Amino acid sequence: MTMPALATYALRLGDDALVLSHRLGEWVTNAPQLEEDVALANIGLDLLGQARTLLSYAGEVEAAGRSEDDLAYLRDEREFLNVHLVERPNEDFAVSMARQLLFSTYQLALYERLQDSADPTLAGMSAKAVKEVDYHRDHATQWVLRLGDGTDESHRRMQAGLERLWPYVDELFGTDDLEHSLVADGIAVDSSALRARWDGYLDGVLAEATLSRPEGTRTPPGGGRRGIHTEPMGFLLAEMQHLHRAHPGATW
Amino acid sequence: MSHPTTPERDWPLWEVFVRSRRGLNHQHVGSLHAPDAAMALRNARDVYTRRSEGVSLWVVPAAAIVASSPDEKDSFFDPAADKPYRHPTFYEIPAEVQHL
């Protein structure tokens, strides 16, 4: 079964949002402060809202009768199309804030451009989400600045968090034939064109936070978009999907 | 056994004021912990305005608020209790006055 390109594209963006939303949900009751529990849950719920729109739309375009729940809960690991960065484990707070900064900076640049998409659903979702993601990026930026330019220990951990996730950065800007064909139709955004804006923002934050930009990359980019994931993804899906699979159609 | 000071115990307390819409005053809605003013404002946004409660936020270090003491309650507030003439309730209101 091959999905229409537009459905696949919506799934890629939707899976990014869904999987990161789940990771942020894992922080609830574990964050350093109650206030931070609420902040991370808010960000996760924003992303979940985006994911619902995108997954529903993917199902609609695919026209095979799959709902947002079918796509979220009944696909297997190889069918998820999110980038590796969002599935990486929370580890410590600095790693999670590094992940949020790296991803939100990318997602904001993406949605800013996707607002002008020829596809009204993608354009509308992006126009709404831009304000949300602008705040996500700001929240992560505030923490990276404080931890980077904080104590010796916080600086060490923040730098370590960046080093840990830097290998997953290049994948964000990877592109392929499917994306190219949608870019040609004015529907998708060319991921590689987002890099300059991303670099500009990141470099500014890192300099102010007295952090140094990690060098190089270790993993070839592009695996996530083809359904090939890192080991923690399977565990994440097991937790995210087990309730729905054990009790199909269960509602709250 | 020693109890090390954890970071959260060091975060100062902030009082949060929300203006629910233009033209109204900011009202005290609660308090929260944050490491500094910028984070306090963001935490306030997340904790107290996530259901569209406000259009403007103030955060004030709780330590900066000078409060009346419960011990002084009698001398501060009781003397006002038996002075009803301070309330504007002894005037006949002319029938022509509307909307008072």
Please tell me about this protein's structure.
- The complex is a heterodimer of chains A (252) and B (100).
- Chain A has helices spanning 5-25, 34-62, 68-73, 84-87, 93-114, 120-148, 152-165, 177-184, 195-208, 232-246.
- With 252 residues, chain A is mainly α.
- Chain A has one domain (5-246): Ferritin, core subunit, four-helix bundle (Ferritin, Up-down Bundle), CATH 1.20.1260.
- The longest helix of chain A is centred in the first third of the chain and has 29 residues, at 34-62.
- In chain A, 44% of the residues are buried.
- Chain B is of the alpha+beta class and 100 residues long.
- Chain B has a 3-stranded antiparallel beta sheet with strand order 2-1-3, covered by helices on one side.
- The radius of gyration of chain B is 21 Å and the shape is flat.
- In chain B, a hairpin with a 7-residue loop joins strand 1 and strand 2 (27-33).
- Chain B is built from 3 helices and 3 strands.
- Chain A binds chain B through residues 32-36, 38-39, 42, 138-139, 142, 146, and chain B through 7-8, 11, 32-36, 38-39, 42-43, 46-47, 50.
Q: Which structural class should the secondary elements of chain A be placed in?
A: mainly alpha
In CATH's first tier, which class of chain A applies? Answer: Mainly Alpha
What's the helix count of chain B? 3
Regarding CATH, which class of the domain at 9-71 in chain B? Alpha Beta
The largest sheet of chain A is: none
Radius of gyration of chain B: 21 Å
Approximate strand percentage of chain B: 15-25%
**CATH-defined fold name of the domain at 9-71 in chain B:** Ubiquitin-like (UB roll)
